[in-house]
Design a protein that fits this description.
binds nicotinamide-adenine-dinucleotide; globular; alpha/beta; 5-stranded parallel β-sheet; FAD/NAD(P)-binding domain; 14 helices; about 450 residues; single chain; 3 domains; about 25% strand; Enolase-like, domain 1; 22 strands; 7-stranded mixed β-sheet
Length: about 450
């Protein structure tokens, strides 16, 4: 039987990054993955293909409707959907093969098949053959799966998940999306740009729960202006398919018919079939693996990171945890700062956030000051033709330490990196405001919002 220092279950961002870091630190590492392609949900059917389609659909939308205001007239614009989907698949193929290459380069033994525990230090892998491996330590990084909605059965065609919505063979006439979270808004935007009528049904009275509510309200206004039909306070009770038509029943409202229904109401941890009960790994009330400091479960030698444990289900959060876990295992040090994990919605404009929202500060009675700066007053945003949105910087009233930064606007997802770095270094809003930002750049809006905390914004 093969023996390894560390066996990582799952080759998503959490698992493969942890495996590589552990190999760099000198461990003999193996990684088990049941899908033929490596990279997990993120690379195969999540972050990467959705960003590919977001970029491509935005290009189509711009060419078709968005360039005239720049004095560019384009005629005869057509959509070649199969080519757009192939471009996405090609990006996914390249990147998943890249992960395989990285494992090889780092001499990580790859096992193909479904892993389950026989004992805390023994894992069975069912692939073409059934093999057993022995491990001093096992790291569970098996990710998450789509949450189902009672009464709304997936049929793999008309009623589906984000996986199907990344590959609709034709542009839906009317796409109904359940859930105005990350997936609903990103994929809803994609198909709307490609010509579909899109209705988003959200149970709550707001979109993007958990995000700063002022920024979410602004996002709601922008999406409505773009033509997305947002129906808030809508509880879906059931849905059924007849031929090519889906009927969606909403509590207290007329049923809605459409040709495609996308369910995007969250994700649940992948813990089934791992044999966790056999070795006694404890779960929390929501089915997530319970971990203590440094990602150790209650079973000695068994660790867990990423979507299977508590916290935001984000690829980069899983990566940081994977690295911190194996670094602690080998060196005794390893840490994740949960106050500086950015979150980004890659719509147009993008929405990005790091740290505490204004709602959270208010709720926790933390005194703060706030600086706001609109992109309408930023020269570069004007030149880009994207004057919508704003930057909001929240800093502690007494210490001025930055507690949160929230952005809706052009390239918000890139701009937020500056805020994350500042927060990681414990910066004050004054620090950020005094950094020289090149002119004319979008980043100047961040500096101006930081100046705004002290009422000193210049260009507004
Ligand atoms: P989400 O948690 O972001 O949003 C789900 C939404 O569905 C919420 O607004 C919720 O109120 C709503 N909802 C729940 N039940 C409902 C019901 N019965 N009827 C109507 N609305 C209902 O979940 P998601 O969009 O499915 O994404 C899943 C996970 O994937 C998230 O945790 C997210 O972090 C991650 N993700 C991240 C990105 C990114 O980083 N850009 C992109 C996609 C997904």
């Amino acid at each position: 039987m093969a023996k390894h220092d560390l066996v990582v279950l799952g080759a998503g961002p959490g698992g493969y990054t942890a495996a590589i870091r552990a190999a760099q630190l000198g461990l003999d590492v193996a990684c088990v993955e049941r899908e033929p392609a490596l990279g997990g949900t993120c690379l195969r059917v999540g972050c990467i293909p959705s960003k590919a389609l977001l970029e491509s659909s935005e290009k189509f939308h711009e060419a078709k409707d968005g360039l005239r205001r720049f004095g560019v007239i384009v005629s005869g614009v057509e959509l070649d959907l199969p080519a757009m989907l192939e471009k996405k698949d090609d990006i996914v193929r390249t990147l998943t093969q890249g992960v395989a290459g990285l494992l090889k380069k780092n001499k990580i033994r790859r096992y193909a098949g479904h892993a389950s525990f026989l004992a805390p230090d023994r894992v069975q892998i069912e692939g073409d053959d059934v093999v057993e491996v022995e491990a001093k330590n096992v790291l569970i990084a098996t990710g998450s799966n789509v949450a189902a909605l009672p009464g709304v059965p997936f049929d793999g065609d008309r009623i589906g998940t984000s996986t199907e919505a990344l590959a609709y063979p034709t542009v839906p006439e009317h796409l109904v999306v359940i859930g105005a979270g990350y997936i609903g808004l990103e994929l809803g935007s994609v198909w709307q740009r490609l010509g579909a009528r899109v209705t988003v049904l959200e149970y709550l009275d707001r979109i993007l729960p958990g995000m700063d509510s002022e920024i979410a309200r602004e996002a709601e206004r922008v999406f409505r202006r773009q033509g997305l039909e947002l129906r808030l306070g809508s509880r879906v009770t059931s849905a059924s398919v007849e031929g090519q038509t889906v009927t969606v029943h909403v509590d207290g409202a007329e049923p809605i018919t459409c040709d495609r229904l996308l369910v995007a109401v969250g994700r649940v941890p992948n813990t089934d079939g791992l044999g966790l009960e056999r070795i006694g790994v404890e779960l929390d009330g929501r089915g997530r693996i319970q971990v203590g400091p440094h990602f150790a479960t209650n079973v000695k030698g068994v660790y867990a990171v990423g979507d299977v444990i508590a916290g935001p289900m984000l690829a980069h959060k899983a990566e940081e945890e994977g690295v911190a876990c194996v670094e602690h295992l080998v060196t005794g040090y390893g840490h994740v700062n949960y106050d500086a994990i950015p979150g980004i919605v890659y719509t147009h404009p993008e929405i990005a956030t790091v740290g505490k929202s204004e709602d959270e500060l208010r709720e926790a009675n933390i005194p703060y000051r706030k600086g706001l700066f609109p992109f309408a007053a930023n020269g570069r945003a004007r030149a880009l033709g994207m004057p919508e949105g704003r930057v909001k910087v929240l800093a502690h009233e007494q210490t001025d330490r930055i507690l949160g930064v929230h952005i809706i606007g052009p390239r918000a997802g890139d701009l937020i990196a500056e805020a994350a770095v500042a927060m990681e270094f414990g910066a004050s809003s004054e620090d950020l405001a005094r950094v020289c930002h090149a002119h004319p750049t979008l980043a100047e809006a961040v500096k101006e919002a930081a100046l705004g905390v002290d009422g000193r914004s210049v260009n507004i």
